[in-house]
Amino acid sequence: AWLESQGLGLNRAPGQIAVDRSLCIDCGLCSSVCPSGALSLTQPAWQLQFDAQRCLVCEQCIPSCPLDAISLVLAPP
């Protein structure tokens, strides 16, 4: 809503971002490129947290993950 209030249009992907916790090693690379803060590292354990409500589905996190632990799950037609 904030981006749209600033005059920026959003083309949302027809799906949602998913993090495969069995592949994720909590390196935090994805959180460094996430513009909405949906991906973050929590202290003191330094574990990746994903807040789907904040996610813009911009997909910037997908290529940043060296282990392919992040994907776009398409919505059913």
Low-confidence spans: none
Q: Helix/strand-derived class?
A: alpha+beta
**Domain tally:** 1
Averaged pLDDT: 90
> What's the total count of β strands?
4
Computed Rg: 13 Å
Helix proportion of residues, in percent?
10-25%
At CATH level 3, the topology is: Alpha-Beta Plaits
Helical element count?
Answer: 3
Name the CATH class: Alpha Beta
Strand order of the largest sheet: 1-4
Query: What composes the largest sheet?
Result: 2 strands, antiparallel
Structure description:
The protein is α+β, with helices and mostly antiparallel strands. The chain has a single domain (13-74), classed as Alpha-Beta Plaits, CATH 3.30.70. The chain contains three helices and four strands, in the order αβαββαβ. It has helices at 2-5, 29-33, 61-64; strands spanning 15-19, 39-42, 47-50, 70-74. The protein has a two-stranded antiparallel sheet with strand order 1-4. Strands 2-3 form a two-stranded antiparallel ribbon. A hairpin with a 4-residue loop joins β2 and β3 (47-50). The longest helix has 5 residues, at 29-33. The radius of gyration is 13 Å and the shape is globular.
